[in-house]
Model the fold of this input.
Amino acid sequence: MLEWFLGRWRATSRKIPASPPASVSPLAPETPGWPAHVAIIMDGNGRWANQRGLPRVAGHRAGMTRVREVIQACHEWGIPCLTLFAFSTENWKRPPHEVEFLMRLPEEFFRSEIDELVERDVRVRFIGDTHRLPPHTQAIVSRTLERTQGNRGLVVNFALNYGGRADIVEAVKAYAAEVAAGHANWDELNEERIGQRLSTAGLPDPDLVIRTSGELRLSNFLIWQAAYAELWFTDVLWPDFTREHLAQAIADYQRRKRRFGGIK
Ligand code: IPE
Ligand code: IPE
Ligand code: MG
Done:
């Protein structure tokens, strides 16, 4: 999968424009390329609704239209992979009616979007423990996977019941099972082998992690994979986040100097 992905990325990189829309943000001349993987912590729906005197769930519904917009932008700009944090392993602590609403949203979203996603050649994946979702949510997850599994364009990962620590624990357990079956050896466990057993196996690590709503934390999102990601924070609440904000984040990313522990 990683081979396939990198091959596709190289092919796509030749076609994509050299910069986000110039009207949004002029780029530095040494612009190093686009991120291969953008990950977004879509936060602030509740506050957006509170500010308008609306119930929190109205913010979640409004946020859904931004998901559509961000997917369209990534498709149009040739970004190969987008991961969206939709529900965390900690979000079960919320009041039952809010959790119930959030578990219905994927049905609403994919029912209205699936045809366009297929048309855009988007391959949808889910990361997180989807087996613990209610049956009706699992059903839409399966249907969406089926409808988009043959697609070869933008990969969109929906993180649903996702937790970074749980992701690592599951990877280690998978390795332990292989050791127990005599197919692997503890001495050979390394970072690469953990990475190959994470939910994001086969995809590049996120280059850019965006968080909306002014919170400056990862909240257990891709904690292994984002070890060297560039982080970009904005006070904008998720239901107000537009493709122009995304372009701004990418333009800022392109001006960063990534050193990965080395020196330039
Ligand atoms: C993000 O918005 C969506 C989910 C976590 C599901 P929030 O619901 O966390 O909104 P705030 O942070 O309370 O404003
Ligand atoms: C992170 O937002 C989870 C999602 C965006 C799905 P939270 O609102 O749950 O994070 P905390 O609780 O403020 O850290
Ligand atoms: Mg929040």
Notes: The longest strand covers residues 81-88. The pocket of magnesium ion (ligand 3) is lined by residues 43 (CB under 6 Å).
